[in-house]
Amino acid sequence: MRSASGSRPVTLTAVAGIGTIRPGADLAEMIATGLGRAGLTVARGDVLVVCQKAVSKAEGRVVALAAVRPSDLARRIGERHDKDPRFIEVVLRETRRIVRMNDHVLVCETHHGFVCANAGVDSSNPLRRGTVTLLPVDPDRSAADLRAGLGRLLGVEPAVIVTDTFGRPFREGQVDVAIGVAGMRAWRSLSGGSDWTGRALHASAPADADMLAAAAGLVVRKEAGEPVVHVAGFRYARGPGRARDLVRAASMDLFR
Fold first, then answer.
1. What pLDDT is recorded for position 205?
2. CA distance 2 to 24
3. For residues 209 and 181, is the Cβ–Cβ distance under 8 A?
4. Gyration radius (Cα) of the chain, Å
5. pLDDT above 60 for 120
6. pLDDT at 137 > cutoff 50
7. Which among 61, 78, 99, 83 has a CA at the least distance from the CA of 179?
8. What is the DSSP letter of 117?
9. Are 25 and 9 in contact (CB under 8 A)?
């Protein structure tokens, strides 16, 4: 991608051949090996976008439904909406607040503060039949640990974004968003600057981590097992950013 102004291009490349990720796997080593096989060199200022499920599987955030004992509430919800009460129980354990619920989905606020379907509990592409994957306990810490591990292996620490696929209020379809960030500011304020006409900017705040997550979703083939995207050429604000910084405070959220 290149802007009309002639600035340097931004390239996004899906990294294939990572392999099956199991609990306890050294994800940094698997990614570094995949980058090498793909002939991709990571330079200072590059970004690696990693899907949440790869991180969660490596961290052992996998639950076998056969071992879950559903609560009375989970049974009632399951009966009312024709869903597996064991799945509902796992969702409830990952939930701080149920935002909305119907026959198709529970929209929940997770313990991280994310608002998403089923609190991020996912039964697609399971590690084993009858298992579900949970979000990482601390996705920002996961991103930071992965960045440090890649730095030791590659000799350079890229920024790391951990992503998940979320639906959006008032919009159809889903997009990938950042749930973990390390090595870059998740968003930046342009207040105090001006647009190209010279008009002062007061409220512009690009969410760079979310935009990179969505862009990475364009090149990833989920059915092909490509959990990592290498991004080069994007100028971001470096620093100790967190995806948690993207969660709007309740006092500022007009939709609560």
1. 74
2. 39
3. yes
4. 19
5. yes
6. yes
7. 61
8. E
9. no
Q: Which of 206, 126, 216, 207 is nearest to 164 (CA)?
A: 216
What's this model's pTM, rounded to 2 decimal places? 0.91
Angle at 138 between CA 134 and CA 139, to 5 degrees: 80
- Would you state the pLDDT for residue 30? 97
28, two tokens? 């940094």
Phi and psi based region of residue 9 (left: phi greater than 0; alpha: psi -120 to 50; beta: remaining): beta
Q: Domains in the chain, start-ordered, CATH in brackets?
A: 11-61+140-248 (3.30.1330.100), 62-132 (3.90.1660.10)
Instruction: List the one residue out of 101, 132, 99, 96 whose CA is nearest residue 112.
Output: 96
Q: 191-234 pLDDT, tens per residue?
A: 555 556 656 555 677 899 999 999 999 998 766 678 999 999 99
In the chain, the amino acid numbered 119 is A
Dihedral sign, Cα of residue 170, residue 171, residue 174, residue 177: negative
Task: Give the chain's length.
Answer: 256
